Amino acid sequence: MTNAEALRRLRQRRKAAGVCTNCGGPLDDVNKKTCFDCRHKPNAKYMKALRQKRSEEGLCTRCGREPEPGYALCTECREYIADWRLEKC
Ligand SMILES: [Zn+2]
Ligand SMILES: [Zn+2]
User: Fold this and answer.
1) 1 C-alpha vs ligand 1 centroid, how far in Å?
2) Is residue 36 domain-shared with residue 63, that is, in the same domain?
3) Which ligand minimizes its atom distance to the CA of 39?
4) In CA terms, which of 11, 26, 42, 61 is 20 to 30 Å from 82?
5) Could you say which ligand is closest to the alpha carbon of residue 28?
6) With contact defined as beta carbons under 8 Å apart, do 20 and 13 qualify?
7) Could you give the percent of the chain with pLDDT greater than 70?
8) At 64, is the pLDDT very low, low, confident or very high (cuts 50, 70, 90)?
9) Total structural domains in the chain?
């Protein structure tokens, strides 16, 4: 069984049980497949779309502020990411 199949079966089980198909939590609205939290929290797809929109508008893709000239990110975010990279290495 592939991962995709396992996920589909899990979702089907959750749907049959009347719980959120995403996290298995209780549904606030029985007509919806996912719970309130899963419908409203920023998900990966939403963040990707947001970053895309910011880069098209020429804004810092991380925070949406004015970026440093010639860069995709603002000074603060570039410093943050540089620190993060140093810690990882
Ligand atoms: Zn949920
Ligand atoms: Zn920024």
Assistant:
1) 24
2) no
3) 1
4) 42
5) 1
6) no
7) 98
8) very high
9) 2
